[in-house]
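lol forgot to send this yesterday, sorry. struct tokens for the thing we talked abt
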């Protein structure tokens, strides 16, 4: 059993949209990521994702039933994106976020592009 210091782990990287694995829990991974700018629209057919804002804030755009909506999240807030919901995080300024998702989750879901990270680094 080991403890994880989130600030220390977040200090180990600067790049945006590149999740880092910091823990494993019952087939789920705990990941840290820094957001800035717009991510790609995508969805996950089989996985729900939880986004917890540690520092800063971001907007989660999502589409359900052909309707586009947004949620603004600040420090200490989280959102769970249900499987199958197309979504896109957007951060005007850098946001530091913790993700909880199945270990098999690809960061860009059903979209393969230059932002796809197939094997996230483990810190």
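and heres what i got for the seq, position by position
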């Amino acid at each position: 059993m080991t403890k994880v210091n989130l600030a220390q782990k977040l200090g180990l990287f600067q790049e945006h949209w590149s999740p880092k694995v910091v823990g494993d829990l019952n087939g789920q991974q705990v990941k840290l990521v820094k957001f800035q700018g717009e991510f790609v629209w995508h969805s996950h057919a089989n996985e729900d994702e939880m986004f917890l804002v540690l520092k800063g804030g971001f907007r989660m755009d999502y589409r359900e039933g052909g309707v586009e909506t947004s949620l603004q999240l600040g420090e200490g807030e989280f959102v769970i994106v249900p499987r199958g919901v197309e979504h896109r995080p957007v951060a005007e300024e850098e946001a530091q976020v913790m993700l909880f998702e199945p270990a098999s989750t690809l960061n860009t879901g059903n979209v393969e592009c230059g932002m796809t990270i197939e094997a996230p680094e483990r810190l």
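The mean pLDDT is 95. anyway ping me if u want another try
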